[in-house]
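Run folding on both entries below.
>entry_1
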Amino acid sequence: MNEEQQDMRTAQQPMDGKPIAVPPTIQQELTEGRSSRQESSTNSLLLRFAEDFRPTDRGVTPFQLVDDLLKHPGRVIYEISQGRRGLVTAMLFAKAVVCSAMYGLVMGSFSGGPQLWIVPAKVVVGLLLSALICLPSLHILTSLAGGNQSFGETTAILLVNLALSGILLVGFAPIAWIFSQSTNAAAFMGGLHLLIWGVGAYFSLRLMRTSLSFLNRRAMNVLTLWGLIFTVVVFQMCTTLRPLVDEFSGFRLQEKEFFLKHWFIRPCGGELM
């Protein structure tokens, strides 16, 4: 056995029973390997934006806007940054309101009665208030992270988030309606609505992060922090405006309660959700 092989065997044996530390260069390569999938996913989204970054083929119409949000989001971002921002912003706002109200109608169908119109109103008001509360922090954080977009562009991209989330909620609405008509478990329905909203929030926040990263030509990792803040605000708003699933309890706000206690810690039986 030559000296090189002996050195390799010695290097592979633990010293004093302690595990061998991975060299920094190898550890860096392993870390980069684990994150390569995430980077490739992000790069593919940015490439998709670059390919679609042009005016819409058939003009800005309500149905074309939905199609572009789902298939060609770069076209929507082009209209926001270089095209008809005012028209697109108004249509995104309308989409967010209508889709949220439609899903709120499904939520209210669980209890029926006044909840059929009260819950849609609560969902729309709660969503818009949450967005309005979080809009300044969104613009400030992205600006500190190197963003150069205007406040109007930030507002429009936030509405992209709300509109796409609303479209996804409407897509899942038939599933929620089936369970709302076939079960009396308010706790289960509350969990189902949270799950559906979580799916919509994931895809809409991902689109929002990619949009801002593309416009500013840099990774907007600060959107992860802002997305967490926005999620917490929405949860707390839902808790404040309860009940959203249970029966109508009058035109008054419920007592103050932290959302973790209401949705996750407090026993579900008999709670207003």
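>entry_2
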Amino acid sequence: MPTIDELRNLLGEDSVSVAKDDLDAHAGDWSPRLLLDRRRGTDLSPPVAVVRPGAAAEVGRLLSWAHDTRTAIVPFGGGSSVVEGISGHDHVVADMGRLDHISPLDAKSRLVTVGAGVTGPQLRDALAPGGFMLGHEPQSHDISTVGGWIATRACGQLSACYGGIENLVAGLEAVLPGGRVVRSRPAPRRATGPELTDLMLGSEGVLGIITEVTLRISPIPAERAHACVRFDHMGTASRPAARSRNPICNRPLCASTTARMPSCSR
């Protein structure tokens, strides 16, 4: 059982919370069973403490301590998981919300580096003034974080054009169990053995905690059209879907013409 004094010595008084409301808010996610339990008034299994590291070095100290004390650490982004991914016992939740920095975007290389705790709306609002977007819109966009997208290998409504999150990550920083900070620097392509980014994608926090990400961004299209097409059978829907694939980017068109979504053909 971890002691709160040890955590406060590691991270500082203000970075450790044992308030009941805070513990309850980090006791579960949006999974159906836990939502029903909340409605019934069933007590969930809250963490021993909620910590809020503000830098990769603090995450490193936390995981080093956890390794020595055999304490389970559960990374927490927006809490939007639907698979009970943050349940535990005698565990500490690491809320990544303070890692919300966004660097000036690199318009020439079309890259931006952000903290793992940045939310979808924060990233959208930071990129839009420069005429850029990420092209990643999962259903949880407004309540989830960049780190969570990578840890769950997320995709969304625009992934048919821009790709899943795995296609948008140019590099990342993560902290491994034991506290070692590792970085995968942005590069067009690598052939030097196992790639850190590939290991962390979809790792669900098992292999380490993602702290910073460099993302590939795209210009905002001049127009954006929404449409819904109804088919009576799956078979009749698959044929026009196959014919709609864009030969330039080998992905389905995002709209009716490439002129409306020029970044599809990048």
